[in-house]
Amino acid sequence: MGRGKRGLLAAAVTVVCAVTVLAAPGTAFASAPVAPADPSPAPSASATPAPAATPAPVPDAELEKVRARLDGLYHDAAVATDAYNAAEEKARKQSVQLARLEKRTDTARRKLAELKDQAGAAARAQYRDSGMPPMARFLLSDNPERFADGAGTLLNGARATKKLIAETDRVERELKRDTDDAAARWKKLERDRKDKAAAQKTVQARIKDAEKLESRLEKKEKERLAELERQAARKAQTAWLDTGVLKKKADTTGATATANATSAGARAVAFATAQLGKPYVWGAEGPDSFDCSGLTSQAWADAGTPIPRTSQEQWRQLSHVDVTEMRPGDLIIYFADATHVGMYVGDGKIIHAPRPGRTVTVAGAGTMPILGVVRPDA
């Protein structure tokens, strides 16, 4: 297109735009003053906005407070988890006992019905004999042979009747005892279920609080928080090892107290090792997830030595050994309330299921406050 034509086209476009503006409804133009031209160019609508100010990083001191708060929340969750597991174990045992009692009461009811049928048959036989008592018929007999036979029959009958009455009384007492026992166990079962439900709510609330607290942190802050946790664990483990705890009290050769595991202990350690990487889930006993005591109890069950389900009961019921004498397979109980447990695997390390959001892992045995050591196969 020639320069002249381009000029005409531009002029036409300008006119069309002007007409369009003037024809738009509500457009005021007659008395509107003309504003003087602004020498500075107007900012473009598509201009890139100024970047938002980067928030100041959270100081390490504040992150330490967050870490302490998270530790407290997860510890509370561990306490509630142990309460949940204990209530679950009690409910399980009560259910087994109730099933046994139900079977026994059913047997007793059938036996009682049979005894009553026998008593009824005896009564009907007496009625068929004109209602005369056996003793009267015996005394009125005028046949010596029948008299002798009657004496034996009467004696046997008396014994049978006495035995029938005694057996009926025994079965009735047994049935009443089992029925009362079942009623009491039903009440206990209901209490255990309520305790379990209350503990479940507490666990879920504490975990939710912890997750909410962590969600407020930026990605870099979460990374720094994780590093602070690792630093604290290394510091605690180093301090624990520096006490010389892994050396026997009477040993001067430097040999550690990690005596060879028993065959059962080795099996328990092998089981725990095979679970590495599986997620922590409170109340879980495997096979796909575990909580701390679920891991240790299942490991020792696999080794052929059943132990209590909870860390608190493991501490209460299993044999205690000195920490300087522990060997692979022993269980280290943590915190003053015995709310965490790990399996010692030697060289100052444990395998444990730490807390929600983590997986079964290897850690230093001294990274948490040790309450004591127990031995399942003492």
Describe this protein's structure.
The structure is a single chain. This protein is α+β, with helices and mostly antiparallel strands. It is 59% helix and 7% strand. It is built from eight helices and six strands. It has helices at residues 3-23, 60-128, 134-140, 144-215, 219-242, 263-274, 292-302, 311-317, and strands spanning 319-321, 331-334, 340-346, 349-352, 361-364, 370-375. Strands 1-6-2-3-4-5 form a six-stranded antiparallel beta sheet. Strand 2 and strand 3 (340-346) form a beta hairpin. Helix 2 (60-128) packs antiparallel against helix 4 (144-215) and helix 2 crosses helix 5 (219-242). The chain is elongated and about 105 Å long. The protein starts with a helix and ends with a strand.
Q: Outline of this structure?
A:
The protein has 378 residues and is α+β, with helices and mostly antiparallel strands. It has helices at 3-23, 60-128, 134-140, 144-215, 219-242, 263-274, 292-302, 311-317; strands spanning 319-321, 331-334, 340-346, 349-352, 361-364, 370-375.
Write the layout of secondary structure elements.
Elements: H1 3-23, H2 60-128, H3 134-140, H4 144-215, H5 219-242, H6 263-274, H7 292-302, H8 311-317, E1 319-321, E2 331-334, E3 340-346, E4 349-352, E5 361-364, E6 370-375
Antiparallel strand pairs: 1-6, 2-3, 2-6, 3-4, 4-5
Helix pairs in contact: 2-4, 2-5, 3-4, 6-7
